[in-house]
């Protein structure tokens, strides 16, 4: 047998040994997800959303502790914590990163340009500079938009329909969230169209709410709008209690505010977005590139009315809103 033929046989034999080994290594690899979350580890709301995400993964065949691992990190509403936590997740390393809000999304994007990133929740991701466009996000990041920037005007219209005498409204918002500027602009334009006066009260961290509440009390508005993001959601109890104390009709984006005692909410379902984020993780783990996965916007928006709060405020909800409502809290 010629020397070249022997060499070829040896190479083929080695290849047959290596392929099963490589396949075994691939099969044995347990993907790791790094999830950067805004709130605290013991937050009841945070625990619920964490369970929703894991349930979404289970529905797609990914079971924590069996064929997937999840590393959660909590910023505890402190913007200064995001960068370090994002870097920590990147160093682990992980196969996919998930961001729970614009602060988390920005921190993850700055921490890596190679590890795929899924935005579980984002406000105006194009305006915030997170993606090039919704259809073609580009780079290593994609996910879901809560479409908040287009809902500001609609919520003001609903508030005016529920409380027609409303003329002065204050917006409580997290001014450090880059995705909320367009929502504020949309609300300002709607206020001008409706002949209403709009004031703003800014918060940037957990320690800012007392000053914001004091400013709102001095303005004595007819109603209060709260833009929903990680910071305001994690302080919804304080916000609702303030609105109740000052007899302010409160409208926000996510149903949790109405469930806590706010007058009404209109927006996308936050748990539905979190569950949908699991789909993006699944696609990426199966080989899809973030740049090829368009950013999704919600297709359904929920109107939730709290009639107990309306009665306490002396408000009679018009039949038109009651017919539109997805849920009425008695």
Task: Describe what you observe in this structure.
This protein is of the alpha/beta class. The protein folds into two domains: 31-146 and 270-292, Rossmann fold, CATH 3.40.50; 149-267 and 302-329, Response regulator (Rossmann fold), CATH 3.40.50. The chain is built from 13 helices and twelve strands. It has helices spanning 3-28, 44-59, 82-91, 102-111, 152-162, 181-193, 209-219, 230-234, 236-245, 256-260, 270-285, 307-312, 319-324, and strands at 32-37, 69-74, 96-100, 117-121, 141-143, 168-174, 197-203, 223-226, 250-252, 264-267, 302-306, 327-329.
| CA radius of gyration | 24 Å
Write the CATH architecture name of the largest domain: 3-Layer(aba) Sandwich
Order of helices and strands: HEHEHEHEEHEHEHEHHEHEHEHHE
Helix percentage = 40-55%
Q: What structural class do you assign from the helix and strand content?
A: alpha/beta
Number of strand elements: 12
* Count of helix runs: 13
Topology (SSEs and partners):
Blueprint: H1 3-28, E1 32-37, H2 44-59, E2 69-74, H3 82-91, E3 96-100, H4 102-111, E4 117-121, E5 141-143, H5 152-162, E6 168-174, H6 181-193, E7 197-203, H7 209-219, E8 223-226, H8 230-234, H9 236-245, E9 250-252, H10 256-260, E10 264-267, H11 270-285, E11 302-306, H12 307-312, H13 319-324, E12 327-329
Parallel strand pairs: 1-2, 1-3, 3-4, 4-5, 6-7, 6-8, 8-9, 9-10, 11-12
Antiparallel strand pairs: 10-11
